[in-house]
Write a structure and sequence with these properties.
The structure is a single chain. The protein is α+β, with helices and mostly antiparallel strands. It has one domain (19-145). It is built from 2 helices and 9 strands. Strands 1-2-3-4-5-6-7-8-9 form a 9-stranded antiparallel β-sheet. It is extended. The N and C termini lie far apart (65 Å).
Length: 146
Amino acid sequence: MRKITFLFLLVSVLGFSQKKLKAYEQETVAVSFDQYDLIKKVNEYYPDIFVSKSITNNYTNDLKERVLVESYLVYEMPLNCTSYSVLVYPDNTRLDYSYNRKDKGFFYGNVTIFNGSVYRTVFNINGDNRYSSYYIDGKLINEVKI
């Protein structure tokens, strides 16, 4: 009985200890052509999302392959903002953004390119007022007070 219990314990421990080692890496590089095309097209319709020439890429590395997880555009802080962040997804068709303007509150949302059109969702929090706005190619489609 003790041998069976010991064997079961040994197999269980060895089976669960075979986890992959993952390392997280970060590097700041020049924006790729695909990323630049996305940012330029978004900036064309929505100028509050700025164009950047450098990006910080976050990778996972399990010593076999290096996988891009997310990328953040690198900006100098705009004068009228206390925080400003733009995240580009690896498929280069969408991005998330958030910024806090000193005078108009906190803005966040996403922009997606689908079938050649640029869709944007904006959520604005300014004190007790909360709004959500929806745009297609720079034109306001709907605005809702939440």
